[in-house]
Amino acid sequence: LDHGTGIVIGSTAAVGHNCSILHHVTLGGSGKKGVVRHPRVEDGVLLGAGATVLGPVVLGAGSQVGAGTLVISDLPPHCVAVGVPARIIGSFVNVTEQPSVEMNQMIDGGNAEVISFESDGI
Question: Distance between CA atoms of 35 and 33, rounded to whole angstroms?
């Protein structure tokens, strides 16, 4: 998929099962030729509106990336990341949760419980 659709998914990107990708998301490349240069999005990931993921990074299963976030390094499974650049602000207690299924973008509501917050700089 390319720019005309409102999202960009690069040629070597991989997207797992049950992922939700909201509008204006970019899964962009690193510019290197002949290697995997785009992100790998594992199962159950929720990518918020306007999120940008650049290079051969891995977004762990069940992770949630907030709107407008810039991801330039790997994210572990079941984490919540926001900011420019992305910063992990919590993780899901129930690791069977898939944020992409519930589409719950509130970190303190719904069925997903979030723990391990670091608040300095946020």
Answer: 6
Q: What pTM was estimated for this model as a whole? A: 0.80
Return d(Cα 61, Cα 89) in angstroms, integer: 16
Q: Which runs of E-coded beta strand occur in 7-121?
A: 8-9, 14-15, 20-21, 26-28, 40-41, 46-47, 52-54, 58-59, 64-65, 70-71, 79-82, 87-92, 114-115
Q: Which helix (H) or strand (E) holds 96?
A: none
Low-confidence ranges of the chain (pLDDT < 50): 110, 112, 114-122
C-alpha pair distances (Å), 119 with each of 5, 31, 48, 68, 88: 36, 34, 21, 19, 10
pLDDT score at 120? 43
Pairing verdict, β 26-28 and 8-9: parallel
Q: Are strands 114-115 and 87-92 parallel, antiparallel or unpaired?
A: antiparallel
Q: What CA–CA distance (Å, rounded) separates 89 from 36? A: 28
Task: Indicate the pairing of strand 26-28 with strand 52-54.
Answer: parallel
